User: Fold UBA7 enzyme from Hemiprocne comata.
Amino acid sequence: MRAVSADGKEMTVQDVLDWLQRTYGWTVTVLLHGYTILYNSEEDEEPRTRQLAQRLSEILNDAGEPRQRELELTYVCEGEDAEAQEASPLLICSLP
Assistant:
């Protein structure tokens, strides 16, 4: 997926989750890049709201990861267990 919103800016985590919901009908509960948690629906409201509003590269920068043009994201959807998550295809996001 090209992680660029309609206004040409990099997508936020909320934009990515909305895209997955619209495109595949998935309700994502956890979104990861490697070991970096981009979103976790079980977080308290304040951290969860902050996660949703951040751009993908902002979260990775905060985690000390180098700037990347392509991200391999993994995810867990509502109702999935750990084994199902391992079988889910990676989501490749291209950043502007």
